[in-house]
Amino acid sequence: MAKRLDGQMLAALYETSLRASVAQHLATAGSPPGLAVVRVGDDPASGVYVRKKAQACGRVGIKSQIIHHPATASQQEVLESIRQLNANPSCDGILLQLPIPATLDARQLLLAVDPDKDVDGLHPLNLGRLVRGEPGLRSCTPAGVMALLAHGGIALEGIRALVIGRSILVGQPMGIMLQQANATVTMAHSRTRNLSDHCRQAELLVAAAGQPGLVGADWVRPGTVVVDVGIHRVPPQRQGTRGRLCGDVRFAAVEPLASHITPVPGGVGPMTVAMLLCNTVQAWQQRCGSGVRTALVPLPR
Ligand code: NAP
């Protein structure tokens, strides 16, 4: 039976470490770290994520604000919000909550975020720093996966890793981070032929395809480390019951085979939020001159 890579527990350790770090630097800084979340429209899942991020900020001493535009907001209006936040000295981190309405150009909005406040690590400058292996703000979800693997004691050097998904948000930076940890990385996507064969060869499998239950037991060889990034809401089966969350991996079938596995919920999700907090505190420390540009706040032990 696989060991669970517990993101809930590790995220709590990160929060303890960050809370101490904020308290330690507060007097020198003069003001707490500030995170602004820009939300456009009323996507219900985004509403839940934004609330969770705000609550997590509160727990570590980050001052958060939500700038909520209606779905009808123009590109110019959202751009103006971002520009004001760029110029606001008490705002250390800016996050554009995705997805945004299709009427808006997400690429242009992400480009407008000051790279030093880009706590989602999605600005081309920060993505470029990642590719070059230079310090900078890193994409939260793959950084969270790397932290989970490190804390789980998974040796990545020379390991055959398969990443399913090649989005800018998850798959691409995930592949680069694994490669930089000296894994031998294969990237799979919707046009990959014989995906099941690739999966069966992998010693580390990161599923980020956004396809519920894509990876079953017959795709996983015994002893594989399985990381499930996918998150999907399964509607209630019967009236009066509650819906549940699931991932891209059929957890019950794969757990007996894998050496390590992340649950959904409680795996990658909480770590994404923890890395957002790390990035915000890092940007704040940078602004106050009390921090070094490290990729990650040191792992709590
Ligand atoms: P995305 O932008 O839709 O990208 C999905 C990627 O998977 C694409 O590269 C796509 O290939 C590939 N793909 C889709 N179907 C596939 C299939 N059947 N076989 C192989 N590859 C396939 O999604 P995303 O933003 O990367 O997110 C992926 C999943 O992670 C979603 O479920 C999302 O909700 C979840 N997520 C979770 C967290 C968290 O904190 N837990 C954070 C972010 C995202 P093409 O490039 O060829 O289209």
TrEMBL record:
CDD domains, per the entry: NAD_bind_m-THF_DH_Cyclohyd
UniProt cross-references to InterPro entries, sorted A to Z: Aminoacid_DH-like_N_sf, NAD(P)-bd_dom_sf, THF_DH/CycHdrlase, THF_DH/CycHdrlase_cat_dom, THF_DH/CycHdrlase_CS, THF_DH/CycHdrlase_NAD-bd_dom
Pathway participation: One-carbon metabolism; tetrahydrofolate interconversion
Coiled coil spans: none
Entry GO terms, CC: cytosol
Documented EC number(s): 1.5.1.5, 3.5.4.9
PROSITE patterns assigned: THF_DHG_CYH_1 (PS00766), THF_DHG_CYH_2 (PS00767)
One of the GO BP terms on file: tetrahydrofolate interconversion
Residues that hold NADP(+) according to the record: 165-167, 231
GO molecular function: methenyltetrahydrofolate cyclohydrolase activity; methylenetetrahydrofolate dehydrogenase (NADP+) activity
Pfam families per the UniProt record, alphabetical: THF_DHG_CYH, THF_DHG_CYH_C
The Tetrahydrofolate dehydrogenase/cyclohydrolase NAD(P)-binding domain, residue ranges: 139-287
Superkingdom per UniProt: Bacteria
Reactions that this protein is recorded to catalyse: (6R)-5,10-methenyltetrahydrofolate + H2O = (6R)-10-formyltetrahydrofolate + H(+); (6R)-5,10-methylene-5,6,7,8-tetrahydrofolate + NADP(+) = (6R)-5,10-methenyltetrahydrofolate + NADPH
Metal-binding as UniProt keyword: no
Spans traversing the lipid bilayer: none
Record key words, sorted: Amino-acid biosynthesis, Histidine biosynthesis, Hydrolase, Methionine biosynthesis, Multifunctional enzyme, NADP, One-carbon metabolism, Oxidoreductase, Purine biosynthesis
Annotated function: Catalyzes the oxidation of 5,10-methylenetetrahydrofolate to 5,10-methenyltetrahydrofolate and then the hydrolysis of 5,10-methenyltetrahydrofolate to 10-formyltetrahydrofolate.
Name of this chain's protein: Bifunctional protein FolD
Organism: Synechococcus sp. SB0676_bin_10
